[in-house]
Amino acid sequence: MDAKITIPVTDLGELPLHFQENLDEALSELERELQVRERCFPRWVSEGRISRIDARDRLDRQKKAVIILRALLDNYPPPADAEAA
C-alpha cells in the first residue's frame, strides 16, 4: 500500500473545511474496513463463506480506494479556514 499516485490539481481551488473533514472521516473508515477484511477474509475463505478470488478482488479494490482517496487528500491544498479553526 505504499504506492504513490499523483493526481494533478489544476485551478480547482481548495476544499471547504467541512468537506475536508468528511473526506478524512471517509478515509479513516476505508482504512478500518480494510483492516477488518484483512483479518476476516482468510478465515472466511477457509470456512467457504467467500472464494479466495472474491476475497483477493475485494481486498484489492479496498486498497485502491484507500490509495486514491489518500492521493486526493494529499494533493488538495489545505483549506484557508483550517488555520482559523
Structural account:
The chain is built from three helices and no strands. The model has no long low-confidence stretch (mean pLDDT 80). It is mainly α. It has one domain (17-78). Helix 1 runs antiparallel to helix 2 (52-75). Helices cover 71% and strands 0% of the residues. It has helices at 17-47, 52-75, 80-84.
Put the structure in a nutshell.
The chain is an all-alpha fold. It is built from 3 helices and no strands.
Number of strands: 0
Strand/helix succession: HHH
Q: What characterizes the major β-sheet? A: none
Helix content: over 70%
- Contiguous low-pLDDT stretches (5 residues minimum) are none
Rough outline: elongated
DSSP strand content? under 5%
Mean pLDDT: 80
Q: How many structurally independent domains?
A: 1
Estimated radius of gyration: 17 Å
| Distance, first to last CA | 31 Å
Number of helical elements: 3
Structural class: mainly alpha
Strand-helix topology:
Blueprint: H1 17-47, H2 52-75, H3 80-84
Helix pairs in contact: 1-2
Question: What keyword list fits this structure?
Answer:
mainly alpha, 3 helices, 85 residues
